[in-house]
Amino acid sequence: MDSIRLRPLSRLFLALSLFFASVGSSFAQGTATDPSKAGVAPGATAAAAPAAAAGAPAGDAAAIAAGDALFKGNCAQCHAVNDVVVGPALGGITKRRPMSWIIPWVKNSSKLVASGDEYAVKLFNQYQKQQMPSFQLSDAEITSIVAYITSEEGKQGQKTDLNAKSGDQAAVDGTAAAAGDEAGSSKTMNVLLIVLVVVLIVLVVTLVIIANIMKDVLRGRKDIDGRDLEVIDQRFDFAKIYKSTAVRGIVGTVFVLAVLYETIQGAMGVGLQQGYQPTQPIAFSHKLHAGENQINCAYCHTSVYKSKSANIPSPNICMNCHSQIKTESPEIKKIYRAIERKQPIQWVRIHNLPDLAYFNHSQHTQVGGIECQTCHGPIQNMDVVYQYSALTMGWCINCHRETPLNTKGNGYYDNLVKLHDSENGAVPFTVSSNGGTECSKCHY
């Protein structure tokens, strides 16, 4: 008899293995993307508009636009034009008080109350003696805010409650819902992949059992000669493979390369804390404040547009709202205790550059017009803040190489742009073109 051949069985096993492996790989590729920390395009949140030029007319469109930005950055947390929030509705303010009263009130309301001004004292007592913070705004800036308020008086459909959502936020919620659907679909794919893997394992076990049964049946046949018995009883000798010089050399090389790779990756990762997300002493949600309530970043981080560092908000800024809102919240009571004990809140710093690197916030935010989200990611969607960007030297240099400079209207750049264009043609004038990748820019 011809020798017994198990090759058709082995071919069937190999074909099934390749089939399920390819199917499993395709499903794994379909679920590889993790949307949990997806970023946003730079510019997702509008930066504060520049202040109105000194002496701009109150009804001028530019003054109204500047007043809009100033109102949202300084006033919208406590006031609305046509509704009462923490403070009174501001619509009709020019009919109630003259500008000669409004300007000193905005600059230092406590001084006006202390002076005994009748209207100021009445307003102070009417709103539970809530102290309005002082604002370092010029007369022209306050005038532009009033111009904006006047232009908005009587308009319907404004949502001024601190818990109300704007149309933009509704769009964000819709995006979040879509992301939730995508996450649900991803979970279904994962379950399906697990089922396929289980089925593949069951098939492998079944084929092994069938092969052993066939061997037992064939051993009992009398017409099997010595050659057939050798095929049936053959064993796979792992010792020969293990003792092979070639195999040992390959294994040793792979091991050395793996150790070397991990060592290099570990060295490159020293000081890199991308994704760092510590637990803070108070559960402050940027998603609630900056996202749902649309509080401007500069309202809390008051120095972000004018200082080297973006300051951590002091408790009195929190109290501007929370002396009236959610006063019974356990987290808000932690702020009260810190104030009563005259102790700072021990916030855990997340973004920390090495001392050897110089970085100036105002140079990027005020001069460069860079949005907060460019470096900090979708901060308005974070319940707990994490480090979104790598903040490595290479990351900064790439940004300097790719970010064009806005040179319009700035005579300082006129000759530089001409020289650059004559040498580089249509290549944009970037931060790097202005020396932004020189070592001394950040290290000196």
Write the layout of secondary structure elements.
Elements: H1 7-30, H2 61-74, H3 93-96, H4 99-107, H5 109-114, H6 118-126, H7 139-152, H8 167-219, H9 226-233, H10 238-243, H11 245-268, H12 286-292, H13 297-300, H14 315-322, H15 330-341, H16 361-367, H17 372-376, H18 393-402, H19 414-424, H20 439-442
Task: Describe the 3D structure.
- The structure is a single chain.
- Among the domains are: 61-164, Cytochrome c-like domain (Cytochrome Bc1 Complex, Chain D, domain 2, Orthogonal Bundle), CATH 1.10.760; 235-270; 286-442, no CATH class.
- With 444 residues, the protein is mostly helical.
- It has helices at 7-30, 61-74, 93-96, 99-107, 109-114, 118-126, 139-152, 167-219, 226-233, 238-243, 245-268, 286-292, 297-300, 315-322, 330-341, 361-367, 372-376, 393-402, 414-424, 439-442.
- Residues 62-153 form the Cytochrome c domain.
